[in-house]
Amino acid sequence: MESETRQKGTFAVAGLGDSLTYGWMVRRGFFDRAVDALSGRFPQAEISRINAGVPGDTAPSGFLRAATVLAGKPDAIAIQFGLNDCYSGVTPAEYDAAVRRIADLAVRAGSLPILVTSCPTDLPGGPEAMDPYYGALRALAAERSLPLADADAAWRALPAARAAALYLDDGVHPSDDGHALMADVLAAALAALL
Prior knowledge:
This protein has a single domain, classed as SGNH hydrolase (Rossmann fold). 51% of the residues lie in helices and 15% in strands. The protein is globular. Helix 6 packs parallel to helix 7. It has ten helices and five strands. The chain has 194 residues and is α/β, with parallel strands linked by helices.
């Protein structure tokens, strides 16, 4: 895919996810920020985007939308789910199965899946509540040699006070600074493709 992208001088990326991909309650969400950063780093490339973030969405619901998003023929698709799955009754096994189905569909469509962990959370269960979900993404990335944008790991590596300041008042959604951190992680994964 890399040589074909370089020959065309174009790169299309889709973001399939929830409110974080959408960019809820912030000036600009992490997905759009990451694509903007990529465009700035590679000004000679024609980079386009499809932001298919839907607030409240889960991985099983995302799978139902994936074919429509992939019909746009993106070279890569960032897959970001987990928070809503964890707190709306989607089990880790159901989550894992849905993400695998999305990744399979993407590969069949000629799009490289990029798996994206989101932020940890201050909701009941704490950050550890997300471990089975993000662990499923890490395992899938390792198993299939897929790119992983591990925003959760970057977030947890910060000092506690700094990490806590990256949330909106709800303790779930990232602030603009939280989205900036997630964007940096995704932009690095995208840049490796170009």
